[in-house]
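USER:
Before I trust my own judgement here, I would like a peer's view. Write it directly below this note and I will take it from there.

ASSISTANT:
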Amino acid sequence: MDWNRYLNKEIECSCGRKHICDIKHVAIGVDVMESLTEYIKEKGYQHVAVVVDKNTEKAAGQMVYAVLEKGEIFFDKIRLEADEIIPDEITLGNLIADITSATDLIIAVGSGTINDSCRFISHKMKIDYFIIGTAPSMDGYASDVTPMLIHNLKTTYEKMGHAKAILGDVDVLSKAPMHLITAGVGDVFGKYICLTEWKLSHLITGEYYCEFVDGIMQDALKALETSIDGIPSRNKKAMGAIMEGLVLAGVGMSYVGNSRPASGSEHHLAHYWEMMFLQSGQEDPLHGTKVGVGTVIALLLYQYAKKILASGKAFPQPSFDEQTWKKSIKKAYGISAPGVLSLEENVHKNSDVAVAKRLAVLQQHREDFIKLANALPAPEQIIAAMKKIQAPYLPKELGVTSELLRNSIVYAKELRNRYGILQLLFDMGELENAADCVCKQIEQYK
């Protein structure tokens, strides 16, 4: 891929905005690690901190050490020792404690959590960072948004800056554990939903939308679709294509300045499951794995909404009972409830006035919604692809019980002020009915 098409330039877009992504270098391919020293010397960095965990040190950390030593680059080794690295205050505190004031470059060796944590620290400490990808497992490599678990609430921080360089050696990527590779596939599959919801929100709420960025995200999907057959055999060309698609998705987010082009209701479901798993001490599957399963659920919800809208059924009068809702949120979110309650207090997305306004617009766009829903793949199509690569596609495979699944459908939309299928069904007074229907449907899949 010619990354110069996307990086280090200002793009005058027909959407009316100027797009720019200030990542300096992207190298995905064979023997790309050798360019690391060149990138460091180009900027004149003097004191480097290499951040790894016990797994990523073996996967690529030792290789990074060797390259830096060969190039006579001074560096500190910072190894996160926890068995499970969580992007929370503890991880951030450990990094701040270990990164010296003289450090002028952080090299993050890993994927999701290490990348997000190092980006957060990079932004806070005003230190540049590079990312050495160890698995094609998520789309955050090129993003400037950072999801963290702060005060027990999954919080997405926007405009946190980019890695100045992204390196993905296909030899390293192809040796990643298969569940990490399939997680990347799940994260990309989520784009079917979030891109649909971006268009939907543009129609219903007037949210900003960019056809050019949408096209970039579609290219990321195509990169996956053309390479999925090579995943079971760990084909290096396929690994490179998936990694390019994931990085490209991050560039698309960067152009917009938030996660909207790459995160919708499928991500809200995944984030809710993650929070509940962590609260209960249950093992938490990888983010992209949850997103893949969330995509199947969201597709079923679109089918449900399409039937309702196609039937011509009248919308009910909005009747939001805030006190009853608050009680439900406290039960559904536990220790994370205060942040959710605060969001609604600030934006009032569930208020009768807000709902009535959206419903009036939706009434005018029933046919447009049906067209958007018809353009989505069938749930069975995603399931067939997941089966091909032996990836989870059912909630129960992640440890998501029927109760947790229903709660996530009903309450996950409260995590963000972002219009999508969950909010649409709530507005229509159909969210709980849809949750019951989908919970029954998903039990029929084998």
Notes: The longest strand covers residues 48-53. The two ends are 38 Å apart (CA to CA). The CA atoms of residues 204 and 439 lie 27 Å apart. The chain has 20 helices and ten strands.
